[in-house]
Design goal:
- This protein is mostly beta strands.
- A hairpin with a 6-residue loop joins strand 4 (44-46) and strand 5.
- It has strands spanning 13-16, 20-23, 35-38, 44-46, 53-56.
- A three-stranded mixed β-sheet has the order 1-5-4, with no helix packed on it. It has a two-stranded antiparallel sheet with strand order 2-3.
- The mean pLDDT is 88.
């Protein structure tokens, strides 16, 4: 049985219509180094630092599609 106090919160999902984006953690000085991410032919890409998930708008990964 999973303990709610020890569970990991879900990563932030950002829906985009671009295939290339930059992520800096969004925390200003508390963020992380800016990295450029390329989605390519996939429907999503995840930031290796903060686990933000960038998903293609209208794809199967889009929570609002």
């Amino acid at each position: 049985m999973a303990d709610a106090a020890n569970s990991v919160p879900p990563s932030e999902i950002i829906v985009t219509d671009q295939h290339r984006m930059a992520c800096d953690g969004g925390g200003g000085a508390l963020g992380h180094p800016r990295v450029y991410l390329e989605m390519g032919q996939d429907d999503f890409v995840e930031c290796p630092y903060c686990d933000r998930r960038f998903v293609r708008a209208g794809s199967a990964e889009d929570p609002k599609a």
